[in-house]
């Protein structure tokens, strides 16, 4: 018998947050929704609407379908459910550094797990999602919501999620060109200097502590990075100038969102600077020949969840 149909909502995410390369991430209030039904009949029927729909494969290469198959195998249910009916409604921009592939992986895992009566825990879903994605910093906030700090120790992924003591507004400039994570990782060095590593360790630790305590003063320089952004700057025209413009307009700081090309500025809600920061980022990008849309978002605190009221 085919399964019932279920809807899952998964937030977009911004990884690294400057110094936390491959370990820190946050979830934001832009979402992809998945409707999923498992079928006894083999094969997948996939329909997609919204952001980047025309560039997402609707066949065996589809990441949602691959993630559904992954969890069916883990549950030894692949002989019961050989196919699926998948419908995606996407708002997260595709291949821009807002975790669109993580939303697809998490949606497939979370949806199929719910249809299997929640056979696996969230921690197990995090293991599976990290195995599929290769690093935890997008899938962790997509699953848990909030700010997340993740580590992998001999294959075991741990994730700590925190809701900052201060309210943040997240201003994201979304350039009109895509950038694949693969390409943005190819420009990274194999080794880094001790000085650069120390620089990042201090900032990542300071960021986490200051967010937990709600201490704004210590957030001023924590979004700087020496491990990946300097190498990726050549792929994003005007990147450092956009960071400077955001800070001048009142943001606490700014960073590359994931592997880019989106840039994200972190603002205090009580300062009401997010509109001005967005405008400054847009204009500065334009001065470097880049057309960008601005998204102003909050932190998502819920993570992936089943929606029943659609
Ligand atoms: N941490 C990853 C990177 C995020 O920066 O390459 C992108 O998926």
From TrEMBL:
GO terms for cellular component: cytoplasm. This is Homoserine kinase. ATP binds at residues 93-103. Its EC number is 2.7.1.39. Its main location: cytoplasm. One of its GO terms (biological process) is threonine biosynthetic process. Residues 217-285 form the GHMP kinase C-terminal domain. InterPro entries: GHMP_kinase_C_dom, GHMP_kinase_C_sf, GHMP_kinase_N_dom, GHMP_knse_ATP-bd_CS, Homoserine_kinase, Ribosomal_Su5_D2-typ_SF, Ribsml_uS5_D2-typ_fold_subgr. Belongs to the GHMP kinase family. Homoserine kinase subfamily. One of its GO terms (molecular function) is homoserine kinase activity. The keyword Protease does not apply. It catalyses: L-homoserine + ATP = O-phospho-L-homoserine + ADP + H(+). Keywords: Amino-acid biosynthesis, ATP-binding, Cytoplasm, Kinase, Nucleotide-binding, Threonine biosynthesis, Transferase. Residues 62-146 form the GHMP kinase N-terminal domain. It comes from Selenomonas ruminantium. It is an enzyme of class 2 (transferase). Pathway: Amino-acid biosynthesis; L-threonine biosynthesis; L-threonine from L-aspartate: step 4/5. It holds the Pfam family GHMP_kinases_C. The keyword ATP-binding applies. Catalyzes the ATP-dependent phosphorylation of L-homoserine to L-homoserine phosphate.
């Amino acid at each position: 018998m085919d399964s019932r149909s279920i809807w899952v909502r998964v937030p977009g995410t911004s990884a690294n947050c400057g110094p936390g390369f491959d370990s820190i991430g946050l979830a934001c209030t832009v979402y992809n929704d998945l409707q999923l039904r498992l079928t006894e009949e083999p094969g997948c029927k996939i329909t997609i609407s919204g952001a980047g729909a025309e560039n997402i494969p609707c066949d065996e290469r589809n990441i949602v379908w691959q993630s559904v198959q992954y969890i069916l195998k883990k549950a030894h249910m692949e002989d019961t459910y050989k196919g699926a009916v998948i419908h995606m409604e996407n708002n997260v921009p595709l291949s821009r550094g807002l975790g669109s592939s993580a939303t697809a992986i998490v949606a497939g895992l979370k949806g199929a797990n719910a249809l299997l009566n929640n056979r696996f825990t969230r921690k197990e879903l995090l293991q599976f999602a990290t195995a599929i994605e290769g690093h935890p910093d997008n899938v962790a906030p997509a699953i848990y919501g909030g700010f997340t700090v993740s580590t992998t120790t001999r294959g075991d992924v741990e994730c700590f999620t925190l809701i900052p003591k201060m309210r943040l507004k997240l201003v994201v400039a979304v350039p009109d060109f895509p950038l694949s994570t693969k390409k943005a990782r190819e420009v990274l060095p194999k080794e880094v200097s001790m000085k650069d590593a120390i620089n990042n360790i201090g900032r990542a630790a300071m960021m986490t502590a200051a967010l937990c305590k709600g201490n704004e003063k210590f957030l001023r320089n924590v979004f700087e990075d020496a491990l990946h952004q300097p190498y990726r700057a050549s792929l994003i025209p005007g990147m450092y100038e956009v960071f400077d413009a955001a800070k001048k307009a009142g943001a606490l700081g700014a960073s590359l969102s994931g592997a880019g090309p989106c840039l994200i500025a972190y603002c205090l809600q009580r300062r009401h600077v997010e509109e001005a920061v967005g405008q400054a980022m847009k204009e500065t990008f334009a001065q470097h020949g880049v057309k960008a849309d601005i998204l102003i978002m909050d932190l998502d605190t819920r993570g992936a969840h089943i929606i029943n009221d659609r």
